[in-house]
Design goal:
Number of strands: 16
Number of helices: 15
Largest sheet: 6 strands, mixed
Distance between the termini: 12 Å
Structural class: alpha/beta
Length: about 425
Amino acid sequence: MKPGPPGCAARYTSRMRIGIDFGTSYSAAAACIEGELRPVRFGEAPQFRTAVYFPEHLPDGDSVRRHRDGSVATASQVAEALFGDEAVEAYLLEGDGHLVESPKSMLGYQLHPRAKDTIAAICARILAHIREQASAQFGTEVREAVLGRPVHFRSSMGDAGEVQALALLREAAAVAGFHAVEFLEEPVAAALQHHAASATRHTALVFDIGGGTTDIAWGELGGREAPRILGSWGVGLGGTDFDLALSLDRAMPLFGRGVSRVPNHHFVEAAMVQDLPRQRSFRKHDYDEAPEPFRSRLMALQAEGAPTRLHRDIEGLKVRLSDAATGAFALDWIEAGLGVEATREQLADAAEAPLRRMRALLAQIRDERGVPDAVVLTGGMSRSPLLRGLASEVFVGVPQVAGEASLGVVSGLARAAAG
């Protein structure tokens, strides 16, 4: 989809198009109604964690296969699932069932055909939840959407992964009850939102650091002229990579990483809660021969829900390090008196590899395009001083504009949907 006029003045009658930011970590939706940008509410919040809990069984892909045969999804197919933080809390409380986090991160990887159907069905459940909430709040059946997409999906298959990810998302949207969807690159959507808020014309680099990918757009934005997007770039790195780095560096040594003979990939498996095959593999390992105290700690971490609980604490610590120089959390549920501490400098050291790749991408764009009038930061990780500092290193002296960290992309998608 090419970006159209960024206005927000559509007046809907029999049809409505919404913008959907189906994110790796968080998802949101919004619409332009009678000139007003209106977010969809999920409980009391304008976004929800991209997590879904199935108390009984994971979807087996039947809804996807039925759709191929001409059927459509129904509300009853969504009723048995919980979403967002409620999903995580229910999973930790019940201690069984199936929690799926960040299904978007799996769309571009090589998958067995039945696994592809299952991932599409899981995404369909989440998109149906969004569609139903929007329909209820806006008082009309929502059947059309502009769906955000990264410049490049995380993928193990190159261009084939891009094609597969878009095909699975399109199919998931159809199963969820959408009759028409278009895709728009997420940094372009954020650029449209920045354009609408800018009175004067200028060149801008939009630096969108999300949960799973980092996406960048360059354009001539602001003023009375239409926005001109002149380029976009992306890399499969985001907040989840910082979570993994922080977990491996600060938490996993307490379980034996680097100080025992337990292989490193075991700790990676434990930390990557969004990767279901890795989670299943971690739970199957036998730690009877591991030395204490690591044996007991690893076995406690293998309990149902334990990796999710640790990941939630790690993510919270990462977020706190955006505002404070130090942070900590307790691991009393693993062992009395156990805890994790970290400083912002330690996070920077742990995440040196993703930071280096992001810096290289920004430097490449600077060398290709020159220096913009402004750098616009958006996405959940844009709050981090590490990322703001990175942009300052590459674009020395260029003013930075703090975009809407959580809602910049979805606001631009809603404007595109109204165009």
